[in-house]
Protein: 2-dehydropantoate 2-reductase
Organism: Fictibacillus macauensis ZFHKF-1
Amino acid sequence: MKVAVIGGGAIGLLMASMLTEMGSNVTLYTRTEEQANAIMKRGVKCHYFGKNERYYPLHARKFPDLKEEADLVVICVKQHQLSSVLAFLKQSAMVRHAIPLFLQNGMGHLSSIEQLPQSVVMAGVVEHGALRISETDVQQTGKGALRLFFVKGNNQDVQRYLQHPILDAVFSENARHTMEEKLLANAVINPLTALFEVENGALLHNESLRTLALMLFEEARSVLNRSDREKDLAYLWNICEGTKRNRSSMLKDIENGTPTEIEAISGYLIKQAEAQNLPVPYTSFVYHAIKAKELVIP
């Protein structure tokens, strides 16, 4: 299967590595020419969780320089970077018959991807922990699942193909439930780890952080009108445990001085809360605190 992976961050490098391990013909499309050249020269090295590292020679180009058609397009950029990718998917003949698979945090993009011209569109959430060590080197810092669903249409061949042990792919028929569950976890883990500059596991073992996590959790549950508290809480703690050595993407963004996904996560919850006239003081605090850190950190 010919696969285009768009995005050379931690998740993009990890997905490109895993898909290559499966036998896919992968081309990785990056934001910069420099990273594409580095990958063409050195390949990608992936340190799998609990296993030895693997090296993959990969084709790489700067996005959107697609030279051949793809069967599957895996989009691993962040929500605030999606506009150019969506425009490309609407206009390029190279991906007219491809199946786009979106792997973003938050839920604000779902309505946009439903409008794409492709007959089959997929989305999902990544529970694997990943850390980009360099432009060509990625570490899987925690093992989770790749939870996928069809936004529109269906393709059983692709579904079977992606159900490979290395991906730990699980298909869901309830798209909203899947996205809400991960959004709830992101709304707790990402802002707290970024504000306190800690690994995900700290939310399990630091009593004060655990208390703050529960406050954010209860607000998110209320906004999303979730019914099974114990199941949602178990999911949150399982994510923290499974990625306990991981530094969240939001923390990495703050450290790197790049925009975070706070708008797609906490910002989305705040808008939903306003529509329901629900107070969310803790979510509002972390939202503005992260916004402040984005401004003060060069």
User: Anything to note?
Assistant: The chain has twelve helices and twelve strands. The mean pLDDT is 94. The two ends are 42 Å apart (CA to CA). The first strand starts at residue 2 and ends at 6.
